[in-house]
## 1
Amino acid sequence: GQNIDQPTEMTATEGAIVQINCTYQTSGFNGLFWYQQHAGEAPTFLSYNVLDGLEEKGRFSSFLSRSKGYSYLLLKELQMKDSASYLCAVSPRWDSGGYQKVTFGIGTKLQVIP
Amino acid sequence: EAQVTQNPRYLITVTGKKLTVTCSQNMNHEYMSWYRQDPGLGLRQIYYSMNVEVTDKGDVPEGYKVSRKEKRNFPLILESPSPNQTSLYFCASSRAGEQETQYFGPGTRLLVL
């Protein structure tokens, strides 16, 4: 089965840096995703990590350690608009037709305060 | 504009009354999925489709049906809705070979009384 853990809520200050952790235990592993979801809206794709290490995209970076079953999303220079839920998702396997199954964590609700 | 559309956006219905939630994408994507999102449970996949006439069960398929007769459309059918199907539903699509980037529709909020 799949188990994905991330903190339920976090609070951080505008302009600061915040790290959102995600640990996973899955039967098989292809890659790890991060999505952002503002309240009442659809999730939007942020990053996809397959190999160990840090990938940077502007103010957002995502890190993966496959051996530890661990990832984090790093948000720098926080802005008020970054207040949202951040969903960690893992792809445990490909199915027989080449489709990549994805399992989502429950998400971390980040509140950015002035 | 590249997008995934869902209709209706909001729906209140009663137990047992069949309903269909439509999903359409204009990006010529091969893959389409349906998810439901519930507090404390996160996004869970209901069904997915890899192409026309190819569908498979996700993690929570009970009580739902889907069809993929055209590449752009992937309707979700609740033959006999029950209150435990009250949820927020998202349709998503992605291109084969670029599946890591899923595009989500705006969501359909369903209340079953």
## 2
Amino acid sequence: RKEVEQDPGPFNVPEGATVAFNCTYSNSASQSFFWYRQDCRKEPKLLMSVYSSGNEDGRFTAQLNRASQYISLLIRDSKLSDSATYLCVVRSSGSARQLTFGSGTQLTVLP
Amino acid sequence: NAGVMQNPRHLVRRRGQEARLRCSPMKGHSHVYWYRQLPEEGLKFMVYLQKENIIDESGMPKERFSAEFPKEGPSILRIQQVVRGDSAAYFCASGARNTEAFFGQGTRLTVV
């Protein structure tokens, strides 16, 4: 089983739609969680951290369910500029605190 | 505060040559991560370093690849005797101990 698993998509949605991405992780001791986006194979950019209580940043809402080892990202009122690959990222605990990336979910917002 | 700087942005090497990729972390960051992205694939972890120490190299191929992060100067990812399969984008990210990481623009390595 992969450490971090995401539905690769692609998700093709019309402008204004609401879309949700899910991510599961295998290491129950994982400590920190993030969503990044990557455009056209440029460098990944941090979208938001994911906190246990859930957090929102404008049209984006991230949630964490530690019991189910599951992270989600909700995008409301999607824009053309939201088209990108969304990467779920998990930081392991202990001395080897590497960041492990999911393979990404591809989103295309259509006019 | 400059971001993470990687150079060169593009690197072409013939099979059998050496490739040296450099990464200067953001000011104040002492943690560096290297990732490789093959065409049409996701990011794959290679190595995680703190100043002068390799913390986790579980993603590094056993041969030809090495990484360092000296006390002074940038982190270096070194690939000896490159082969066509090494052609990829190599991304470096930097961070502090428990924070998110920020990426450089990557080095696109092409082996001809």
## 3
Amino acid sequence: KAGVTQTPRYLIKTRGQQVTLSCSPISGHRSVSWYQQTPGQGLQFLFEYFSETQRNKGNFPGRFSGRQFSNSRSEMNVSTLELGDSALYLCASSLYGTVGTDTQYFGPGTRLTVL
Amino acid sequence: AQSVSQHNHHVILSEAASLELGCNYSYGGTVNLFWYVQYPGQHLQLLLKYFSGDPLVKGIKGFEAEFIKSKFSFNLRKPSVQWSDTAEYFCAVTNNAGNMLTFGGGTRLMVKP
């Protein structure tokens, strides 16, 4: 069974631009979560989607948004990019979306560089 | 709010040495505990998890962890490390309010052959 896939794998943008990242979960998985990984802040939760609805949101500004489609694929959008948005963005999917105890399977990430 | 601390940021061991990585969490309610590993150039993989029951949990590749509720700890152990265990290890928790993983800062382990 194919794992979580993320596209693109690498992105270079300039300040003020916007970017959309895509995540395809493992087949049959209904929950998709997004995380930001930086050397300074480590791994931080962005948001979780389940059945096309945002179920949880982390402590990030409104410039960060996401959505989930009926096939469980998810996209994350960052508008008005800032230098500090440079990071590895990780997507994780889980099967049941069971609150708290679901095992999350991570994708390889999208490396975003903001110049 | 919950938080996770991993006190060892870098650990260097020789092959066959025993490993123990510390993880402490802060949360007053029921937690679910995870250890993830990130090998060089690879994505995060689950090593083991604890939800309930026996506090000694066995995972893949010979790793185990013990949940000590009174100490708010979930330390990772391996009796004999191999060079291939070189990686970054992350402790994480969720609670029963949501699937959002709260991660510790990670521990970089280097195993010398």
